[in-house]
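Question:
When you can, review this sequence-structure pair and walk me through the tokens.
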Amino acid sequence: MNSSSIPNNNTLRSNTPKHFTWVLVMCVILLGASVVASLAFGSRPVRFDELIDGLFRPDVDSFGANIVRKRVSRTVFSLFCGAALGVSGALMQAVTRNPLADPSILGVNTGASLFVVCGIAFLNITSASQYIWLALAGAAITAVFVFGIGSMGRGGATPIKLVLAGAAVSAALSSLVTAIMIPRSYVMDQFRFWQVGSVGSATWSAIGTFIPFLIVGVIIAFMTAPALNALALGDDVATGLGVRTGTLRFIAALAGVLLCGAATALAGPIGFIGLLSTHVVRLILGPDLRFVIPMSAIAGAIILTVSDVGGRLMGNPGELEVGVVTAFIGAPILIILAMRSKVRSL
């Protein structure tokens, strides 16, 4: 693509939404509040002094301080997974020009689930690093398959065709997952907790495995954002601006699958985060992806972390898995969005 499709610094400043700074400040405050809530609330709430001891006084060995330290990895993992899913949703909506595109709606999560359960059943995999590569492969193959089906027929890949193709593929793959698990009880025992979607089993080792995928995916997202803005004007206009639309879609979709697949491998198929975060950001700041992508990352981190806290409080003294909470919130919102937008393309 040529330089005409990429805004310079003066253009970026002139196109910055007037209320962007205030929105950013509010999101940072909400992010901080969600982190504090994640550390403080659960089956055993901690006092303020225990929170301080757990975070800043490693020599203190009280029960409350140890609980806080155990929750730190879970909180960090929630933030990273939420950010990855938020950016993935923004990229998938931009690539497909579909306001309802989301890893869970397009069947990408289910594809990752199928490959993970196949790995458990036939390859005896158990580690997070092995989950990631299988989940990435499943997510990528499913994304290509759904887009291929949605592109068939008259009119190409329209928003409604992509959503229907994703729903159909997701249903078929879910049936395959069930067929593999039913005769293998050991697979069902290992897979069922992962399938619901949870950040409760987060470890620093898993976070370390996840970080490289998060960094690469986010960097690609930022690099492709200006060209994706041109793509939103239509393929013909984007081509006239020097954008190689096919290459751009491939690279941006690859980043989306990378982020979604890695998050799904470690946390399970958590749905609706990408859809919710990106829609909220677009509603407030507009469609410019230079702002939508970073703010979707922050919004996704907030939504997932708050949902995890909500699941802990609602399920007390146990906990309700975060995948259940996000589905409970996201499903009615998806219906409302579909009714109001009438599934228009971006």
In short: The two ends are 21 Å apart (CA to CA).
